[in-house]
Every structure is written in C-alpha cells, then in structure tokens.
Design goal:
6-stranded parallel beta sheet, 36% helix, 12 strands, globular, alpha/beta, 6-stranded mixed beta sheet
C-alpha cells in the first residue's frame, strides 16, 4: 500500500479560547520526529458544548484529544475510564478514544516533574517543596511530585481550607505523616529547594504574598505560566537569589506524555523546547 492511501490518525486540542494553543505545532514536531502518521488541529468548543464536540470528533474517527481551559472537569466527567493520576487530579487534559471506551488521563503533573528532573536537572527526592495554590493546576501535580519522594511538601493557598482538603485527599499516598502539609501564603518557614507557582496570579501580573525568605541560591522557582518575559513571580524569586524557570518546559513535557498515551512512543523534547524558547 502506498503512503498516499494511508489515512493519518486524527487528534486535536479542545479549548475556548484555543487559537493561541501551541499544541498543534508541538505534536506535528513529535509526529515528524517519530514517524507517526497523524494530524492534529485546534477545535473551538462552545462553553456549554464540550461533550457534544468531543463525541462528534470521536464519531468522525478521532483517536484522541488534548483538553485545555475551561473543559478539564467536563473531560473528566466524559471519560468512561480514568487513570490513577487523572482520578487524583479530578481533572483530565488527555482523552484517548478506543471504540466505546474513553480513557481520561492527566499528564500535567508528569510533565512538570519531567521538566524539573530532566530539563532543569533538579532531583525531587528528599527535597523541600513549596506548592503555591490549591486549584486545578496544583491538584494535578501533587501525586506525581509525591511519587518522587520529597522530604516534605507544603501547599500554601489564600483559602487555607482548600489546601487542607488537598492534604486530606492525598493522605493515603504519603510515605510518612507530615510529608504533606497545608497553610496560608505567609506560613511557610525557611528556605525551600523547589517553589512552584500554580496560582493564576501571573496572568494578572500579581504575586502570591509569600515571604522572601523561602528562596535561597539553591532554590528552583518555577512558574507554570510562560511567555516572552519573566513573570512577576520569577522576577521576585530571582531578586532573592533563586534560579527561575517558566512553564514552557512543562507544556512540552506534558504534550510528550500525552503523545506516549496515544501512540506508545516517547518523543525527545530537548530540541523542540529550545526551538520554542528561541521563538518566544
């Protein structure tokens, strides 16, 4: 059979808005690199019409989809099966359509950990981690971080009860009591090895009100947001001696993890990350 007769498998990203998404560019690069016959495009779903849009795409022969804001909870409800990490996150960013089965996964946490460990070269094992925020972005990364065996992780949030609920949710995943704690933004004491901003404050140019003493020269301060300029959080952390990193590596790594879920092939990420970084 000639290559012209092979219909490439269909994938997409659902979002609203979605025109800004770098996912088609990333997955096209992965497909080229790994020789996978697939096409990937953007699909704008109506705010109240995600389920219909996803079912329609699957009925048309779609094999899988990424899901971005604001549909990650809808995707979780749509899935007929959830991976343990999607179950823990309570949100889905990756769907795989297998006949009647819709597998829901969450690759955000795995992407974050891969970026920290592989790209930034910082081990999570035995470290003090401060996670800022207790919303959907934070919830998706708690289990993957815990699986790498940090000494302790502190979840700081404006509403302390929300952070405490997260701690309670992951009680069964702890290696020892006290490994996971919660409190206010003002509460963390001493320096941390890794500080992760999972709040949406950077979108508004704001800064979570954290004490500057949490940063040291050995601290990796990572903001899940990314752009041409460092975020306010990154600037603040750098002023207090930390090494800073944005969320672009996490974006590429979570995409690579989704690609693996769909195709069973793990693409290389370093060259693409460097290309995207220079294009910002």
């Amino acid at each position: 059979m000639s290559k012209q007769n092979i219909h490439p498998d269909q994938y997409c990203v659902f979002g609203n808005p979605v025109a800004h998404s770098k996912s088609p560019l990333i997955h096209a690069a992965f497909a080229l690199q790994t020789g996978q016959a697939m096409v990937y495009d953007r699909r704008l779903a109506p705010l109240d019409g995600f389920v219909l849009a996803a079912r329609t795409f699957a009925a048309e022969g779609g094999k899988g989809a990424n899901v971005t804001v604001p549909f990650k909870l809808d995707a979780c409800a749509l899935a007929t099966e959830l991976t343990p990490r999607a179950q823990a996150a309570g949100a889905v960013n990756t769907l795989r359509f297998d006949n009647e089965t819709i597998l829901g996964d969450n690759t955000d946490g795995a992407g974050l950990v891969a970026d920290i460990v592989r790209n930034a070269g910082v081990s999570v094992a035995g470290k003090r981690i401060l996670l800022l925020g207790a919303g959907g972005a934070a919830r998706g990364v708690v289990l993957p971080l815990l699986e790498h065996g940090p000494q302790e992780m502190f979840i700081a949030n404006r509403t302390v009860a929300t952070a405490e609920a997260l701690v309670a949710q992951f009680a069964d995943a702890l290696a020892h009591p006290g490994q996971l704690r919660a409190g206010s933004f003002a509460q963390p004491d001493g320096q941390f090895d890794i500080v992760i901003n999972a709040t949406s404050a950077s979108l508004a140019g704001d800064l979570p009100p954290v004490p500057p003493g949490i940063f040291g020269s050995h601290t990796l301060a990572l903001d899940m947001m990314y752009g041409a300029q460092p975020t306010v959080f990154m600037d603040f952390a750098a002023q207090h001696g930390a090494q800073v990193r944005d969320g672009l590596g996490m974006l590429v790594e979570q995409a690579a993890e989704a690609f693996y879920v769909w195709r069973g092939v793990r693409p290389q990420t370093q060259d693409l990350l460097a290309q995207l970084r220079s294009a910002l």
